[in-house]
Amino acid sequence: MKLVSRSEILFSVKSFAAAMLSVYISMRIGLPRPFWAMMTAYIVSAPFAGPTRSKGLYRAGGTVLGGIAVTFLVPQLSNSPELLSLALALWIGGCLFVSLLDRTPRSYLLMLAGYTAGLIAFPAVNEPGAIFDIALARVEEIVLGITCATLVHSLVLPQPFAPVLLARLDGAVRDAQLWIHDALNPAGDARSPADRRKLAGDITELRLMSTHLPFDTSHLRWTGNAVNALQARLAQFVPVVSGIEDRLAALRDMGAYAVSAHWDALLKDVVALTDTPKSHDIAADGARLHERIDELAPPVSRALSWSGLVELNLAARLRRLVDLLVETRTLRQRIDAGVHGRLPREVRHQAGIPVSALHLDYGMAALSAFAAIVAVLICCAFWILTGWPGGATAPMMCAVLCCFFSTQDDPVPFIKSFLAWTIYSIPASAVYLLVLLPAIHGFEMLVLVCAPMFLVLGVLLARPATFGRAMPFLFGICGTLAMIDTHNADMVTFTNSMLSQVFGLTMAAVTTRVVRSVGAAWTARRLLKAGWNELARLGGGEKTTLPEFSARMIDRVGQLAPRLAQAARANPESLQDLQARDALRDLRIGLNMTLLQNVRAQLGRGEAALGPLMTQLSRHFAHMPSVDEEGETRLLDALDNALRAICDGTRDAFQREALAALTGMRRDLFPKAAPYQPAAMSAI
Questions:
Q1: Residue 659: Cβ-neighbour burial (10 angstroms; 0-12, 13-18, 19+)
Q2: List of residues 6+ apart from 167 with CB closer than 8 A
Q3: Which of 79, 413, 474, 568 is least crowded, fewest Cβ atoms below 10 Å from its Cβ?
Q4: CA dihedral 310, 313, 314, 315 (to 10 degrees)
Q5: Exposed/middle/buried for 541, CB within 10 Å: 0-12, 13-18, 19+?
Q6: CA dihedral defined by 295, 298, 299, 303, rounded to 10 degrees?
Q7: Is 370 exposed, middle or buried (0-12, 13-18, 19+ CB in 10 A)?
Q8: DSSP state, 463?
Q9: Contact criterion met (CB below 8 Å) for 400 and 115
């Protein structure tokens, strides 16, 4: 058994204090259900002050929005329970759909607006005339719980989010540097593709974590722009370093790399740049490396060979890698200065990437919303047809569970676990409701009776490994304690409530299994297809910025890693058609297509050859994963024609960038193809 840490004890004590404070204030001001405030205080509480504040703000907004919806819907449809059930189900599903299109803590607001409407409306359908007072009371109780949790976690020994975020940020930077060490090592690469995908996943997780930053209690909250910009640089490391890795492998295969001691020396100096102390300003070192890279890059001519083009691509990517190293070091130094209260002026205007650049799956969001609607309607139909007195709890809990686990590929195991631990909480709930609470008088005794159970649960909530079991257990007890507020603390009402709760959770699991559950391999294919569709749109002329494209594709690569591992454990045969799919290769191709679109207008006559190429690229990715042999031949010819046309064009930086991008695409799309033949040789 793991020993209890100081931070876990502190979190548990503060959460319990916030919960009891919310109950005390609720009782003093005469709110009808003080234990709703208690439950909310626990739900909002987080080990760090920043996430607690952000969750509290979004939950308050969602609660108010849900209360407004209920106040409008219930009086209008109170005489038609079927229509009211449909309207509430559609509201819950609609809010869930929109919330799933924002993969940040902000999505909590609309998700809460959805199922809060169910929590307020379903128990109040028999009192439509009092719906405004009921909704107002629920909003007051929930906002009071949020306020108490936020104040306690912000004012009493607040735990800043900054150390955790900075540690994760530095860990991602170290992983990128280790990759650079391996990729630029002449002996070859020592890391697996799974490590690359893990780095991509860490970058996306950092982006989501940083959305709590504006709410933190440390100075780091003022450096949000610099943190966002640093994450953007980390995202660009992935295609750049993987491209360098592949180009070096290609040169080794051609025998061109082994004879060049100059490239060896340069690569060692680039690796040395990553090992300089954090306090060292590496801008001057980066400028010197730029000069050496430009000296080693082969001059462009019509007769430039395939190995020369690969070296040109390598030079361009090494130049970008050096830029990223310099920019990353500069941004990290600015963040450190901001943490120590010396915020540089540049940080205030630092450009970053909006979190909206992450991958969004409209189809899965719609499917999740549909499953929630169907599950809630089934519970409502059973409730209406049977006239079950305690049936209101079933659609309430069904809505909550369908929303809670909607981001999972297969929510059913999580719903079943929640159901199991809710059932385990029933004996403890019965003891509190039927034995302990009726025997006590006064707030002090309430605190003493609740303390042993809730302080232990608070410690378990602070541990990620036990959170998923402690939360439904606590949820079940708090929901039962709320029956004291309605003066229904008897065995019949308790049994009805527990049966209704179990029925709602069961319906959520069954409906989700039938309508919504998908496998990890299915989701992996969907992620790959989304990337191919975006590449097809790029070929069709869609405009995007390089940072936004990199962030979105890195997000997809990061999501692939755990799903491929899960699918391999569950059903290895399901991965047979995915093994040959390299998401990093697609990322590099997209990077090169974006760079090519950015310089296309400056290429003069060479620009004419890019139109047919982009058309072929769009067709190629639109038909993935199927392969058209004739189409592949046309695409390779279009690539070679574009290379010859650009080689014959104006000698400038735009030409070199275009040639580097075209070379990278040819290498990634056709690694086994015969080497490119320059114009002078093609006429022989």
A1: buried
A2: none
A3: 79
A4: 130
A5: exposed
A6: 170
A7: middle
A8: S
A9: yes
The amino acid that residue 67 corresponds to is G
Q: For residue 255, which phi and psi values (nearest 5 degrees)?
A: 80, 5
How far apart CA 68 and CA 117 sit, in angstroms, is 8
Radius of gyration of the CA atoms of the chain, in A: 30
Q: How far apart are CA 223 and CA 231, in angstroms?
A: 12
* Peptide bond between residue 625 and the one before it cis (omega within 30 degrees of 0): yes
Q: Which residues, in sequence order, are CB contacts of 40 under 8 Å at separation 6+?
A: 22, 59, 141, 142, 144, 145, 146, 149
251 φ/ψ angles, rounded to the nearest 5 degrees? -65, -35
pLDDT digits (tens, 9 = 90+) for 436-483: 888 888 889 999 999 999 999 999 999 988 998 999 999 889 888 877
pTM, 2 dp: 0.84
Q: Closest Cα to residue 208, out of 403, 43, 364, 358?
A: 358
Residue of 270, 276, 319 whose CA lies nearest to 294: 319
Cα dihedral across residues 419, 22, 120, 399: positive or negative: negative
* Nearest one of 120, 98, 121, 101 to 110, comparing CA atoms: 98
Residue 166's pLDDT band, with cuts at 50, 70 and 90, is confident
Helix (H, G, I), strand (E, B) or coil at 141: helix
Which has the closest alpha carbon to 206: 235, 163, 169? 169
| Packing angle of the helix pair 491-515, 412-430 (nearest 10 deg) | 170
Question: Mean pLDDT over residues 245-249, rounded?
Answer: 85
DSSP reduced 3-state for 149? helix
